[in-house]
Fold each of these.
Amino acid sequence: MRIVYIGVVEFSHICLEEIIKNKGEVVGVLTKKRSKYNSDFCDLTPISEKNNIDIKYFDNINDNENIEWIKAKKPDIIFCFGLSQLIKDEILNIAPMGVIGCHDTMLPQNRGRHPIIWALALGLKETGQTFFVMNKDADTGLILSQRSLKIEDNDNAKTLYNKINQLACEQIRDFLPKLINKTYDLIEQDKKLANSWRKRTRKDGIIDWRMSTEAILNLIKALTKPYPGAEFEYNGQFITIWEATKYECDKCYNNIEPGKVVKVIGDCPIVKCYDSLIKLVEYEPRITLKEGEYL
């Protein structure tokens, strides 16, 4: 089974490595030399060269030269893991077995953008990984493989990202031989269960201290590394928070306004939110905040 592989992020590298390890015949890789749009960008050149796989770099996957390059590889199937750009019919129709994509949710629920970030920001307790046959509409195709994943209270973007990577590798080990041997099944998505998450912008990551403590902590966990980080504005500059915790205190601060620094422990400010306190553990730039200041 001849495979053409498309991807540009760390997840793409991990899945490609797993496919190669499990004897997948990868005849070509399409990737980017760099990407300002992907904070988790990963160069697939080293793994491709190490395994003597032809590589082609692209800016727009749907350009004619990429289409012709893929056609020349005569793929039986195309894997597209870790690319947010929609693929047009000219590529979707090249391989007899189609194009397999993936989405970090339990499709048809939570189609759309930024699935790891939204799952954590919304405080969901479960997510998943779905591999599916791509078509002209995003995240709507027939399901090849799907598994659920519990989100723990201490999970953040990095830990959940790692869990999803591990889950995807388990799924690849299961479905790759089924694809090779033509023993796989495809399941149609139930449109009645579908919703779609919108694209996020920078303003979605800006903290309003009138939010609940849980909502603020969820936002910080959702946007920590490898993502850009949750922010608050202080004296005309944006401060990025990478880690924070709920601060337990016997004293009642119900009469204190949200955004006030009620105390500083070491160099970690304790800030009043709508309903309780949080401790800012890791943030940058590491400004000095004083008790009594407002953020």
Amino acid sequence: MNKVLLLGATALVAASIVSAPAFAGGRGKAAASDAEIQDLKARLDALEAQLADERIVNNTRIGRLEQVTDAVQWSFNELRPSIRSGDGRFELAFRGRFMFDLASFEQDPFDFGSGYGAVGNCQGTNVLCDQGSGGVFRRVRFGVEGKFFKDFIFELRFDFGGSGIEGAGVVNIARVGYIGIPGLRIHVGAIQPVMTLYDATSSADLTTMERAAVITTLVGNFGGDNARRGIEATYQKENFLWDGDNFVISAAYTGERVANGDHTGIPGNDESTNVLGRLAYRLYSDGTNNIQVGGTFSQVLNQDDNTFRLRERPEIRITGDRFIDTGNMTGESAQAYGGEFGMNIENFYLAAEYYEFSVERFVNGDAEFNGYYVEGEWIFTGENKRYAAAATNNNVAVFRGPSVASPWSLGGGTGAWSLHGRHSVLDLNHNEGVFGAATPVGGVRGGKQTINNVGLTWYMNSNLKMMGEYSMVEIERLNGAGASLDADFDIIQGRVMFTF
């Protein structure tokens, strides 16, 4: 700006000098020759041209500034590519994750009951006595998520992993939502409803390699899990009753999972439908330490084919075999309910959940089952779990993994290290009777599964994590004739996880 003013003043002075002879009369003509006048005019023309150039440059800079304000903004935070419009109304982020698992079963045929086959030699006749060790890509996910027109959100995600064998790729999440009302989120599509503390926790932030058996049984059979056709509303507010608290309530109406299909072509048969929800309340937080309680409820309104079957793996996905299984139960509705507790004090984390299931059978009354887990983690490098009060997905009111203070590098940082352990019980027996006798009328011999595991986790950085676990599995079960289906075995498993 100062340069422009200087040029303008110079041009004005030059113009005055050129016009001076008109007022000076004959004396000016004698003092200034025609050559001098022409020289001054040339200088004036040059100054005017330079002044015009400066104006063009300044206008261009202003234009560039306006373009920057409206330009698309790229970021690459923690390896996640993200795009954002200059006005903030549109956002898009790419997400990916894979988990590669390895496992070995330590089984002794003499630790299996007579119901599996010849005592000490059942591995020749029953696959459960000789589980195959190996590896599998537990999850291979890729997708996008973001915001459009400021108040709408979306997420599209596919999964190519699996249990026992990888898949060809299925819809994992496909949803759109509205967030225009502060604290409220409504979304519809193929969703993962907010259920329980552990299921609401992202698979990238799990304390153990697999969720507890009671959780996977609950969400898989009572309207939860991912890729559920449905609609959900969630309200969340921090400092709801006092400073440091966090209130979350969520309710959903869901149908079948996208990959499951349905049997609505059968006369008189409708797709399974469920009403479910979660209430969570953080009682205390000082920014580092957190204490939370909550509960989950689900009502199965209508069951596809009027058939219920509860069964579960021993908290491993290298193989799809189950040791506990209720078999088919005929009924139209069922309920599940229970509570949760979670807390972290500095770098120590503790969580527990208990749930009961009730299946309303057409005959022989309701069949009731239950399960629970208690787990803890000690991050001995000093980092602490991070509490996530809010989210645009279902990872709300949960405890996330630590923020690694010193990412690993050769000769540099160590990453974050932790020890974890869990006691997990799932009881699928109902009026099971006694050993040596047939199943009582109305009884269910699904079995009771108890798992104790310990493990070590290495958080190398925010994208890469390695886990190792040792699990001790105990099965208590009778077959229909009263023979023992008890089993005791150990599992050694590990995981490499990469996420962005």
Amino acid sequence: MKYKNRVRSRISNLKDAKNPDLRRNVLCGSITPQQIAVMTSEEMASDELKEIRKAMTKEAIREHQMARTGGAQTDLFTCGKCRKKSCTYTQVQTRSSDEPMTTFVVCNECGNRWKFC
């Protein structure tokens, strides 16, 4: 099954009208049959598709970093990675109630995360 999927992927990429460079490189010998057999979908993608994927990855990273748990902003903590003091923290009772709360801290500058009790 894996072999069939890989063959289908190669055929699809070679037939793609938006990716004539791949087809041209295979036909002129710049890409050997051995190379195309082991290429990933990222390597076969057109430049346009690579840019779209890169932009989508950047956007997903940005959204993930912005999706903070709505904690409080403070300058009480110093980031161990970038040494800045702009942080957001939340406190959660992760263990039994007779033990201290766990504090989760996120650096607003570099996105570094850490926790302590």
Amino acid sequence: MAEGLLAAHRSGELRVALGRASDYYGPGGLNTIAGTTVFAAALAGKPIRWVGALDQPHTLGYLPDIARGLVTLGRDTRADGQTWHLPAAPAVTGQEFLDLVIAALGRPSRTAALGRPTQRLIGLFNPTVRALGETWYQRDRPFVSDTSKFTATFGPFTATPHATAVAATLDWYRACSAGQ
């Protein structure tokens, strides 16, 4: 798909700039790597599960930051015809992310990693979890986005700190569970 869009840009058919984000979370992000297994589970008092290794750094984008990055690409013609990795807060390990969720939650919670064997087993019955197998390389080793091209071109980008973003995401999940 990306190559087709870039080809359409080169032919003059469309103006295209592609923004790519790592795994993401935030208000409105239900079907994300951290959605139900982290935020919804934490609020329900269930163990919160990180998909992949807990000790590996992982770039996670916050949806409002991703939106700001996409707006930047859409407004600046220097972005045209290229693929861009969108800025995010510094990478954290899975355990560090879960610790931020627990701190924002304000009460203890059990944590666990959902490893590859469990993913394969659940994937037998759940196509969404099965699809994670295609990107498991992002889960069992460092997965850190390099956004230096973006900041070198468009200038500094202040991403929302994970602690602030996690708190806002929990607030959104609370509001949703309260029927608001």
